[in-house]
């Protein structure tokens, strides 16, 4: 009897874990973008860890646009100049920078995800900002080419005012 109960609990746990990793659509989330982002990319982050950033971006773009992208970087702490300001991750917003600023002023919630990258870090933060400006898009073709092969190590969720 005890073995059956343990087996049943393990089965339920494994089914729940698999469901959390399955892709969902925006429609399945009732059109709620925040719920979609949280369920699909954060609760389902195991699908993206160890994979190229392009996999996450392409899945993102199937349901919602990239409204704005920000980069985390090594900052100015490294002692070698060539190691300073190297991009270590990307934060994707489904709203534009202007929409985000308006929501902040109106004290309305917004959500985003941050994908952390595995070394080696190959691109300078300022270079990517220039490329983004040249593309005239938050994640245009030139910027996408620079970021697509970075390997994702973690995906986190930010829900902020």
How would you briefly describe this protein structure?
The chain has 161 residues and is an alpha+beta fold. Helix content is 43%, strand content 19%. The protein has helices at 2-21, 33-43, 53-63, 97-105, 125-135, 141-147; strands at residues 68-73, 87-93, 110-117, 152-160.
Please trace the helix and strand order, writing H or E for each element: HHHEEHEHHE
Which percent range describes the beta-strand content?
A: 15-25%
Total of DSSP H or I helical runs spanning 4+ residues = 6
- Report how far apart the termini are: 51 Å
Largest sheet: 4 strands, antiparallel
Q: In terms of structural class, how would the helical and strand content be classed?
A: alpha+beta
**Oligomeric state of the chains in view:** single chain
If you average the pLDDT, what whole number results?
87
Strand sequence of the main sheet, in spatial order? 1-2-3-4
Radius of gyration (Å)? 18 Å
What gross morphology would you assign? globular
Ranges with pLDDT <50 over ≥5 residues? 5-20
* Helical residues, percent: 40-55%
How many strand units?
A: 4
Description:
The chain is α+β, with helices and mostly antiparallel strands and 161 residues long. It contains six helices and four strands. The N and C termini lie far apart (51 Å). About 10% of the residues have low confidence.
């Amino acid at each position: 009897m005890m073995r059956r109960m343990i087996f049943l609990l393990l089965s339920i746990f494994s089914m729940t874990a698999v469901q959390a990793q399955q892709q969902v659509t925006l429609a399945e989330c009732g059109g709620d973008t925040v719920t979609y982002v949280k369920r699909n990319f954060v609760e389902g982050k195991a699908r993206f860890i160890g994979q190229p950033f392009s996999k996450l971006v392409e899945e993102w773009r199937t349901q919602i646009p990239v409204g704005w992208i920000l980069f985390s970087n090594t900052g100015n702490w490294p002692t070698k100049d060539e190691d300073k300001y190297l991009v270590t991750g990307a934060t994707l917003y489904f709203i534009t920078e202007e929409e985000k600023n308006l929501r902040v002023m109106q004290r309305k919630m917004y959500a985003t995800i941050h994908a952390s990258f595995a070394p080696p870090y190959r691109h300078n933060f300022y270079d990517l900002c220039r490329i983004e400006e040249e593309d005239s898009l938050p994640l245009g073709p030139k910027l996408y080419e620079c970021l697509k092969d970075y390997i994702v190590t973690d995906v986190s969720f930010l829900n902020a005012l």
